[in-house]
Amino acid sequence: MQTLLYQILPPSVAIKLQNGETVDAESYESVTIYFSDIVGFTNMSSLLTPMQVVQFLNSLYTCFDTVLDLYDVYKVETIGDAYMVISGLPNRNGFLHAGEIASVALELMQASNSFEIPHLPNEPLQLRSGIHSGPVASGVVGLKMPRFCLFGDTVNTASRMESTSLAMRIQVSEDCKQLLDELGGFITEKRGTVSVKGKGNMNTYWLKGKASMCSEN
User: Fold this and answer.
1) How far are the Cα atoms of 5, 12, 121, 147, 161 from residue 143, in angstroms, in the given order?
2) pLDDT of the chain, 217 residues: tens digit per residue
3) Neighbours of 37 (CB within 10 A)
4) For residue 105, which of 136, 135, 134, 132 has the smallest C-alpha distance?
5) What domains lie within the chain, and their CATH numbers?
6) What angle do CA 26, 28, 32 make, to 5 degrees?
């Protein structure tokens, strides 16, 4: 049970629950959230048995989770083919969260390029990704199966950055792009104005890579 608790909750939250302490909701002024999904996942699933779909996602997420171990990020959840990661929470890290998530997004895109889908070796894996930075609130919901949940418009906007992105592209909001510019070392390209549900028109950018990566090529 203790091991399971540490797998579904951030360590600092799991420790409090284990010690019988109350975990209060908490606000964070600035975090960065990453969402991705698999383009054409529904069609792929129709070609596989349910067990093969499980094997496919397990192999992919095991690969992705290995990348996350290298950065100051936390995987919030996976729902089907959707993958959600955050930085700046529960461990505050100034504005470094934008760079951590951008680095993760680039590595996950690279990993998906070389990933071979079990039982569909000739089918390319195409990831669609989106990133946004802003304030959120977090809290633990439920008793029997506690879940660490995020709340706020930042979550919705990050999700929209993913849903309006394109295959094998990482779409970044202007708020996130400004933080990346302050940090330096990341290459972005203006996409233009995108109509985002619930937000109207937003200026967005493509995350192209790191300056060091581009200079090596």
Assistant:
1) 12, 17, 42, 9, 32
2) 556 666 677 877 888 877 777 778 899 999 999 999 999 999 999 999 999 999 999 999 999 999 999 999 999 988 889 999 999 998 899 999 999 999 999 999 999 999 999 889 889 999 999 999 999 999 888 777 778 889 999 999 999 999 999 999 999 999 999 999 999 999 999 999 999 988 899 999 999 999 875 555 5
3) 20
4) 132
5) 26-210 (3.30.70.1230)
6) 130
